[in-house]
Amino acid sequence: MYANDGFRELDRSECLRLLARAPVGRVVHTRQALPAVLPVNFALDGEAVVVRTSAASELVRAIDGAVVSFEADEVDAAAHSGWSVIVTGRAKLVTEQAVHERLLRNGPRSWGPWPEEVFVRIEPELVTGRELTGGVTPYGLDLSPLSPLRP
Q1: Are 93 and 55 spatial neighbours (Cβ–Cβ below 8 Å)?
Q2: How much of the chain, in percent, has pLDDT values that exceed 90?
Q3: Residues with Cβ < 8 Å from 125, sequence gap 6 or more?
Q4: Dist. CA 142–CA 6, nearest whole Å
Q5: How far apart are CA 85 and CA 69, in angstroms?
Q6: β-strands 43-45, 34-41: how paired?
Q7: Best CA proximity match to 106, nearest among 61, 46, 16, 17
Q8: What is the DSSP letter of 99?
Q9: Distance (Å, rounded) from C-alpha 133 to C-alpha 70?
Q10: Residue 80, φ and ψ in degrees, nearest 5
């Protein structure tokens, strides 16, 4: 995180707790040597992020075996508060039959089902997060809409 930026750094357990309640996140990967971001629904399996998608999707080809980031957040623009969590790790196609069957029962559900679906698992090597509550920084600065300190 960035020192003195007004956000509170979240520890790993707080990050995972917040991720567990988020319905949608974003996979950040490389596409034609440029950054690409794709919104997806997901679920946590332990600490790993699991995405369910079409076996023929461009996403699977782009991220299987690659180091990617996954971001989820929740923002309340009116209250000037929210959080953001980023998981970085290697994405791998789930190939073990027993794990695949378990995820079919208990894993994420596709919002747009496909005839042949696969699961991609992002194993977290780095988990970071930050939070701003009600426009007040950890240093006591009030950044709410009516604050005289607001730029």
Answers
A1: no
A2: 68
A3: 67, 88, 89, 90
A4: 10
A5: 10
A6: unpaired
A7: 46
A8: H
A9: 22
A10: 55, 50
Rounded alpha-carbon distances, angstroms, from residue 100 to 23, 31, 45, 57, 94: 21, 27, 12, 17, 6
What are the residues whose beta carbons fall under 8 Å from the beta carbon of 132, sequence distance 6 or more? 6, 7, 8, 80, 81, 82, 83, 143
100: DSSP letter: H
Strand (E) or helix (H) holding 18: helix 12-21
pLDDT of residue 143 exceeding 60, the answer is no
**Is residue 132 pLDDT above 90, yes or no?**
no
**CA 12 to chain CA centroid, nearest Å:** 13
Report pTM.
0.83
